[in-house]
Structures are given as C-alpha cells and as structure tokens.
C-alpha cells in the first residue's frame, strides 16, 4: 500500500466517524513508505486519551511500511 493510499484510507475513516477524525491531522508523511504520528502535538492539544505522554515519549513515532 502506498503512502497516498494509507492517507486516503485514514481520511475515509475520518469522514465515516460520527465524532470526527481529529487524529488524522497529526499523521504526516515525509517520504514514500513512511507515516509519522505526531504524539507531542496531539497531547499538547489535550486529545491524548490512550496514554499519558511524558517527556520520554514526546516525540514522533515513525511507522515504516511497504
């Protein structure tokens, strides 16, 4: 799956969710085959509900795929 296909899939999920899709604005791509989830910005906006982001994990998570 290409990066563009992954992003399109995330946008479709966002459109289908009744509560909105605020997480997708924190997913970016800098090169083909790589998605980056910006944990710091998501937590900074008070939207991080899965875990408490502390100083150790305030960085971007890189998701490589083929």
TrEMBL record:
It comes from the Bacteria. This is Uncharacterized protein.
